[in-house]
Design goal:
Helices cover 45% and strands 13% of the residues. The radius of gyration is 25 Å and the shape is globular. Strand 6 and strand 7 form a beta hairpin. The strands form 3 sheets. The chain has a 5-stranded parallel sheet, sandwiched between helices. A 5-stranded mixed sheet has the order 8-9-10-11-12, with helices on both faces. Strands 6-7 form a two-stranded antiparallel sheet. It is an alpha/beta fold and 511 residues long. Helix 10 crosses helix 16, helix 10 packs across helix 18 and helix 12 crosses helix 16.
Length: 511
């Protein structure tokens, strides 16, 4: 992206986020003489607060971060910080949020108009009527005689039901929505300045695209190379003396009344061990199937998991954990937490040695498969698939007469579809993924069998390309099949753009 078109310079040290910065600056610079409201949301740890603090400094705006407290304490803290910001001789005394907002709106009369309320879900928990009060005050300021308030109010919070409800009402009273998505696997590699793609995949499987962890103590001593990965895990991730060890557990601790936090943890544990369907999760919990949808709905509303329809059986939903650290925690840390808390370095080394197989099988392998699906939709060159892909998901191949007579249905790891109005789009590609073992022509033969099966089911397979996604390499015969145009081979180097790094890796910078 080129230089910002606004006069507010993007701060040095802000990694990526050019589009989000320009959106927010344009929101503040909006010349219309009326109050406007914006919402900034996204998962925890992806730089929302850092971005908004930088914006407030650059525009002389007012930034306030709420936390768990009674309303009276929050209003006192808000008054103290506002008095310092506005250089008031005495702190204002507010009896409620209406008084506070009317005072904060004075900021909108000058050249700087920004007011940020961060931690908005926490503030709403103590003041449930706040969204309605904000709407009423902004309506009053905008419709009053001779009104010229240029209040630019930004409400920020991590993905929660509160923010979801706010977004669902956005058509009525929210003027701007900025969603801070996690950095993708390529951006995360640049952020961590990792050359080795095998190492990049494993680090991403632990901390994902959360920029905060790069500037956590765990990021002070990042792995220097592939052979240094185990040292980094032992010293920076599994050490109870560092905050990263505890962070994943906190993601599930703040739950509303009526939600079983223990069941939430066990549901995430089920997902972290490759149980992806509601039926599999109910079996893991040893609970009736009717108990599971409420738990899944809560976790999805908080942005911790995501459900996707099966590529061939849309009524079947597969869930996956969207926060990699949460998956790592429940697969690796949680089963050993009590031992790790009191362990010395030698004992941590032994625990990790035992857990390494679980990490590769239950954490990194499914994470690699998800990266392959993301690559197919977002990064694969257009000529490879023959058409613009619309979706990539996994699919459970339904049985037909005479096929797969018994046992589990075949799973196709990467099913890429194109666009077709009113029905599932044509199959652009079907692919298999292998994390730990080299791939051979046997994988292509299996894919050909699946393609014949899908044609019998009425799928549009006229342009379907077979693909093998392999992290452990490809046999010479498979390479020869690729040369003949029979199969597309996708290695980690290809996923990352043939190892080419963006300029951001050289610049560094904080998210």
């Amino acid at each position: 992206m080129g230089a910002p078109t606004t006069p507010v310079a993007r701060p040095r040290g802000l990694y990526d986020r050019e589009a989000e910065w320009d959106q927010l600056v344009a929101f503040v610079d909006d010349p219309r003489p009326r109050p406007t409201i914006g919402v900034v949301t996204g998962p925890r740890g992806h730089g929302k607060s850092f971005l908004l603090k930088a914006l407030a400094r650059a525009t002389n705006g007012f930034y306030f971060s709420g936390q768990e407290a009674a309303q009276a304490e929050t209003l006192r803290s808000l008054a103290q910080q506002y008095a310092r910001h506005a250089d008031l001789a005495r702190e204002p005394h507010w009896t409620g949020w209406r008084d506070a907002l009317l005072t904060l709106a004075v900021t909108g009369h000058g050249p700087t108009a920004l007011v940020v309320i961060d931690g908005f879900p926490e503030v709403v928990r103590q003041s449930p009527g706040l969204p309605a009060t904000i709407s009423e005050v902004c309506h009053q300021l905008g419709d009053g005689p001779g009104s010229s308030s240029r209040l630019r109010l930004l409400l920020c919070g991590s993905t929660t039901p509160v923010m979801s409800r706010l977004l669902s009402a956005s058509a009525r009273w929210v003027d701007q929505v900025v969603e801070m998505a996690p950095l993708d696997f390529r951006q995360a590699r640049d952020l961590w300045a990792i050359e080795d793609v095998a190492l990049a995949l494993r680090v991403y499987a632990v901390v994902g695209g959360s920029a905060a962890f790069r500037f956590d103590p765990a990021g002070d001593r990042p792995p220097a190379g592939f052979s240094d990965f185990d040292r980094w895990i032992r010293e920076c991730v599994l050490s109870p003396r560092l905050p990263l060890f505890w962070k994943a557990g906190h993601l599930l601790d703040c739950v509303p009344d009526g939600v079983d936090v223990a069941a939430c943890h066990s549901t995430v544990a089920a997902l972290a061990t490759s149980r992806s369907t509601p039926a599999e999760i109910a079996d893991f919990l040893d609970r009736p199937a009717t108990d599971v949808p409420h738990i899944l709905s809560h976790l999805e509303a908080r942005g911790l998991i995501h459900g996707e329809p099966d590529a061939f059986q849309p009524g079947l939903i597969h869930y996956r954990i969207t926060e990699p650290l949460l998956a790592f925690d429940h697969a690796v840390i949680r089963p050993h937490r009590s031992d790790l808390v009191d362990a010395d370095d030698t004992e941590i080394d032994e625990i990790w040695r035992q857990a390494r197989t679980v990490f590769e099988r239950d954490v990194t392998a499914p994470h690699f498969a998800q990266i392959c699906r993301e690559w197919a939709v977002r990064f694969a060159p257009a000529e490879i698939l023959g058409d613009a892909p619309v979706s990539a998901s996994s699919g459970s191949l339904p049985h037909t007469s005479g096929s797969h007579a018994a046992g589990q249905p075949a799973i196709i790891d990467v099913v890429v579809r194109g666009h077709e109005a009113g029905r599932p789009g044509p199959l652009l590609s079907i692919g298999m993924v292998s994390w730990a073992h080299p791939m051979d022509t046997l994988h292509v033969e299996r894919l050909r069998g699946h393609l014949t099966h899908l044609a019998a089911l009425g799928e549009n397979v006229g342009q379907t390309r077979l693909a093998c996604y392999g992290a452990a390499g490809f046999s010479p015969r498979l390479r020869a099949a690729e040369a003949e145009g029979e199969v597309l081979l996708v290695s980690p180097e290809r996923l990352y753009g043939d190892g080419q790094r963006s300029r951001k890796a050289q610049e560094g910078g904080r998210p």
